[in-house]
Recover the amino acids of this structure.
């Protein structure tokens, strides 16, 4: 029973649960944002829904809708999640971690250790 309790109390499980909840809510926000942008596209192009568009008798409108939705969703995720996360990560990384040693510094340290070992 203690193993099960330990499993439940792991940080990864809690982080995953939070990610699922936030992801679900964020998906609704992105869906509504996409609907708003499709409305603007409809004002410009005359129709917000391309599902009736056909090419050589083949309905390609659903594919056009899916591509536009994908591009809008990808842009929202990139600009509202990925880019700010990377900027914040880089800012904290510079403060927390010392600069990585260069190859020359590492080789010099190895040389000095080998010289001290032989002496």
């Amino acid at each position: 029973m203690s193993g099960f309790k330990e499993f439940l109390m792991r940080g990864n499980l809690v982080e995953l649960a939070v990610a699922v909840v936030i992801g679900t809510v964020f998906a609704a926000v992105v869906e509504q944002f996409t609907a708003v942008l499709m409305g603007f596209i409809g004002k410009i192009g005359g129709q917000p829904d391309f599902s009736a568009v056909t090419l050589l008798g083949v309905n390609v409108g659903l594919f056009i809708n899916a591509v536009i939705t994908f591009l809008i969703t990808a842009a929202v995720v990139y600009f509202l999640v990925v880019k700010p996360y990377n900027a914040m990560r880089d800012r904290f990384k510079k403060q927390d971690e010392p600069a990585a040693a260069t190859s020359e510094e590492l080789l010099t340290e190895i040389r000095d250790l080998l010289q001290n070992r032989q002496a």
